[in-house]
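quick one, 427 residues, struct below
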Amino acid sequence: MGKWTTWASASAVLAAVAGWTLGAAAQQPPIKVGVLHSLSGTMAISETTLKDTVLMMVDDINKKGGLLGRKVEAVVVDPASNWPLFAEKARELIQKEKVDVVFGCWTSVSRKSVLPVFEELNGLLFYPVQYEGEESSRNIFYTGAAPNQQAIPAVEYLMSKEGGEVKRWVLAGTDYVYPRTTNKILEAFLLAKGVKKEDIMINYTPFGHSDWQTIVADIKKFASAGKKTAVVSTINGDANVPFYKELANAGIKASDIPVVAFSVGEEELAGIDTKNLVGHLAAWNYFQSVKSPVNDAFIKQWHAFIKNPKRVTNDPMEATYIGFKMWTQAVQQAGTTNVDAVRQALIGQKVKAPSGMVSELTANHHITKPVLIGEIQANGQFEIVWQTKGPVKADAWSKYIPESAKLTADWTYPWVCGNCEKPKYSQ
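---
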């Protein structure tokens, strides 16, 4: 037998083996990714884009050959801004659809709703939005900001000479877990910094609130005391549109009473006439205006997928992108989608983020993130006016709340939660 014949025979065998392997991989069931975001109701204005982001990441990984030689399939449900329905849909995704991981939730009340389900059924949830902290679960990975990665730095900035040396504070939020707990932390922080209690005004409104005339008038009156005043906004969802409109109607400019928002990004501004909002602020860990090669590629990938060059990127999208990357890296490292193996492999995963910095998933199930303050521009984008020198490690438990100050969270093997002997979940 000649060399050519031998080589050809060997090549045929290898080709047959390869074909069999690819065929076997193709016959394997897909790896299922659950998408648990509101596509209707008051939170659809914010959450629909995150559904699209997960679909973009699934599309991208399938173009690269899938994961572990298997196709990745997104299973999308709509909990419709209905908090109890989130729990029902989470159970459906894990038990009926047999998803390997879930990316979802925006509000903390929706996360609180699903948390017992994920713990009971040992599922994995990636939560991509800034939140109030005061929680630690072995089944949740928090890729949004904790208060020390957003709220506290934003207030410190406004207190500084660079930020205007603010002396009076309006803490305005939607009436649910995240704003109430965040404001509890901020109030304690402000008092610790020597701010008098009478220089702090706190106000809550329901989801979808639309009549802001009286509240804005109260804010204007509160600011008339002669001390520099700022509004710290944890208002969520579509209530932001009439809130900012009423500020403009009342003649309140950013130079008079600046508003720093924690839930208003590029996506929300796309639905608002921004000419009266110029100069107001937002604190996030990413803005579309960030200059970095990774961000350029992220924006390009988003526009190519969504087929609309006008669609913006925002912070929770970046957090979703980071979480998805970390999960796929952990699956590849573990060689399986087994929840226990993937959970263990996730700790220590690093991703070059569109923010321009490297994010790392730490043992408390949060990621390191830079903090950025952006000023609203007329085109609906943000000009970055301040940022941390490097990524900030998240505190799952705030040192400004006495009952939490000594608590830590450490989910390294064998998944014992540090000093969280009896985790105190905010209500």
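The mean pLDDT is 90.
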